[in-house]
Amino acid sequence: MLNRVLKRIAISIPVLVGVVLAIFIMLRIVPGNPVTTMMGEHVNPAVIEKISREMGLDQPLYVQFFRYIANALRGDFGTSYRLNRNVTGIILEAFPNTVKLSLLAAVIAWLIGIVSGIVAAIRQNKLLDRLFMGVSLMGVSMPVFMTALVLQYVFAFKLKWFPVSGFDSFKAMVLPAIALGWNSAGSIARMTRSNLVEVMQNDFIRTARAKGLRENGVIIGHALKNAMLPVVTMMALQLSSMLSGAVLTESVFGVPGIGRLAVNGIETRDMPLLQGTVVFTTILIILGNLIADLLYNVLDPRIREGA
Amino acid sequence: MKKKLSLALASVMTLGLILSGCGGNNTSSGSGGGDGSVPAADDTTAAETTASGDSGVDTAGFMIDVLNADIQTADVQKTSKDYTLPQNIYDRLLEIEVDDAGVSKIVPSLAEDWDISADGLEYTFHLRQDVKFQNGNDFTAEDVVYTFHRLLTVENGVNTELLDQVKGAAEVIEGSADTLEGVEMVDDYTVKITLKEPFAAFLSCLTAPGLSIYDSEATEAAGDQFGMDPAVTVGTGPFRFAGWTFNDQLVLVKNEDYWKGAPELPGVVIKIIPDTETQTMMFESGELDLLDLDFVTDAADRFLETYPEQIVQGPRVGITYFTMNFNIEPFQDLKVRQAVQMAIDRQAILDALYGGRGQVEHGIYPYGLIGFNEGQTKISYDPEKAKALLAEAGYPDGFTMELAADASASDTVTMALEIIKEQLAAVGINAEIKNYDESTWLETRKAGELGSFMSTWTADFNDPENFIYTFFGNEEKTRIRSINYPDTAVMDRVGAARGIVNEDERLAEYQALEEKLIHEDAAWVPMYSRTHLWAVSSRVQNFKPVWSGVSDRMYYGVSLSE
Lengths: 307, 562
Hints:
The complex is a heterodimer of chains A (307) and B (562).
Chain A: H1 2-29, H2 34-39, H3 45-54, H4 61-73, H5 87-122, H6 127-141, H7 144-158, H8 170-199, H9 203-210, H10 215-253, H11 258-267, H12 271-299, H13 301-306
Chain B: H1 2-23, E1 63-67, H2 84-89, E2 94-98, E3 104-108, E4 111-116, E5 122-127, H3 141-153, H4 169-174, E6 183-187, E7 190-194, H5 202-205, H6 216-222, E8 239-245, E9 249-254, E10 267-272, H7 276-284, E11 290-292, H8 297-306, E12 311-315, E13 318-323, H9 334-343, H10 346-354, E14 358-360, H11 383-392, E15 400-406, H12 411-426, E16 430-436, H13 438-446, E17 454-458, H14 465-472, H15 475-480, H16 488-497, H17 503-520, E18 524-536, E19 540-541, E20 559-560
Parallel strand pairs in B: 1-10, 15-16
Antiparallel strand pairs in B: 2-3, 4-5, 5-7, 6-7, 8-9, 9-10, 11-18, 12-18, 13-17, 13-18, 14-18, 19-20
């Protein structure tokens, strides 16, 4: 088990370095001096030159890259151009908001997804099944920003049940969390349903029924735990995909999280800020995948024995 | 098996807790308010009132304003973009006031009155003696000397051009002088400023946000935290910078001891909301008191109809212009430039993009600016004549030109370029839109090599000098705008006009130069100036847009009815 964890972590390192390299190069092949953008109109050209030098922008790319890696290993992602603050600090300040949003969204997604998946499977091809699967198809197909806008318009603006924007109370968090979790809820529901339907056709289910167990007992006691294996993995994986969805949700609802930072970074060509958020998010996604992998390992003895 | 499933779920939950735990010191896990840096004080009421920022200030009853993006700093010597805070937390020696007829005039502020020497070189300012900074320190002449010196020497400083005309400024910037020769403390409440040559717009410069006055002691002690940490960022202004939660909100609290009298507003919360749809909905749900309709141009028409009583407006004091680079074929030809002036239907663009809110301009100085000339020659929209001019110039079948679009510019600029493209096509000119990223656009423009573009210049200070000198002041000025106007004799006159001490003569010269540049030489296409519209909530009283487009919010004098 420990071996497996170490192996996975070892595989993750080149992925991380690759991502850093890719984002680093991408940001630098864009033409133009970011300092020009950063300082705006009313600036003395000598100041632009001086700042470029201070930031090491006059150095060869590989020097800049290794400097960046060396600093990043010490937890220093540099200073944001536009905000003139330490990027690590900015990210850590925004992180709790993104975590709150993602976790709340995940819980909503899991609850709605699993329950509606089970109900749909039990009522297979009946009205309820069709309804749930129709709604979940909408969830899967609707881009997250659109869900966000629709929810905001209907429940905050028209019905006034929730504030339009903000993240300073539980009430304010509900809509952003649903918007972000909706998409995952859809796919979890569909996956739960299809797995459950498949499992229900197995011999052991027939045996369970033959023993005289009630149908609910059969489903919950026997079918569900077999059907849930891939679903659990998917749930863990989706925790990381929510981080990317957060970019849009946070912008629509004005949540001061990491997604907003990434957008800030792109809009103002703030390379350290953008690099920092990308690297940070990458680490989270790698962690998410690692956990998904380990979970699967714990849940499914066949994989464990195979390893 | 069941045990393992619950184990697995438990571990997922634990992961969540670990993740949320390592991120911040906030103890609430989804049920609380708080912003990650302070303990959530009163979770239950947070939805109804507004959460307090870092300040711990109770913001109940504050006016709620909004910005699209967070500010960089409240240190106005380091930003030329974010003037909202500086306008409200600092004062300047002089201020601009707009009367109800929309006429701007310079009024005393920290300087009570002033004398100007006959040669126009020496300005002596007599300072108010009853002013204190928000930390209790007295405001004295020393602070003025300190502030101006800091502007020229602070690391990563901007706005230094406001003091370009002060004697010795260049030497301080270069580092060859330690003290700023032209700014002297005569006594505790008198400052003498000496210019290197007469510069009539200097008084206007002193009203610019960039010349806000700082407390020498507090600013020096704050170091690079000045403007970043609200607690150490003090001024003499009507509001105190009380809190800043990054990407979330800025908090201003009224200065009870303000020398003009405490503001009526208890404070202002400025929300940072990037999405304009969200801003609109917030306003309509009563979550905002002020909404700059510039942010939401597509909603402006609806707002005018739905809330006619709640719209406040004022001139923008900014001119939108379209350039023709004299170094690019065939714009050396006067007839070609005149043809382009006539081929663009400015009124149609103003109508299409802004519902006609504003007015078509014919020169360099926009409506609302000192020196605006109602009686100047007009440019008419005349595509037939444009075609004839092109034929005379030897381009009966037109030519191909570039429209340089800056990717970071607003959507309306892009739409305007699309319309211009169509209008030019109607006279046979094939205009191609080329997209640039912001930085390349700016660099190419500063190198003098950019094709035609449309942009807007808004007053930094209310004087025609700020417009004509910026674009046609000398060879360098006109190059960095990618106009490359070639007539040095005219540009020398533009430079010389800055030193004309007699105000009437000076304005007459500026108007003559405008006539020459735009109507005789067709040096650019004046497009339009816009009306600045705001929606205010029904409880907001006395909100007036300030004259300048870059510093358009003054909260002093505003009040909220219950």
